[in-house]
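Quick check before the chapter quiz. The format below is the same one you will see on the exam, so make sure you can read both the input and the output lines.
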Amino acid sequence: MTHRLWLEVRKVLALLAARDYEGIKALDRASRLGVEDIWTTVESYPCTLVEPPDTPPPEMQVIEVSGPGRRRWRVDTPVWTREEGASDLYAIMTLTDCGGAISVRLDDVLVP
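Here is the expected output.
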């Protein structure tokens, strides 16, 4: 994973830790995942979310999505907590290269 992609993933994880659900939704208003869905999952998780480390974790999975059009990646990454570090709560995202900028859509937050 390039550093540029990690910065975008880290930004979403930091927004989750800050409980800035509106900020997450503002990244991609077309996402099927609503603010209430994110809120319910995060607030019911029994640990305290914190910002992730500066480097990508080994648990993170990045898969380039093949197909016509822009380059896209699916990213499955653990969310960080004070109690666990990399937790069993995962953020599932789609990143798209928009000609220099990377757009991010949070697809789900779940315990797989």
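If your answer matched, good. The chain has one domain: 3-110.
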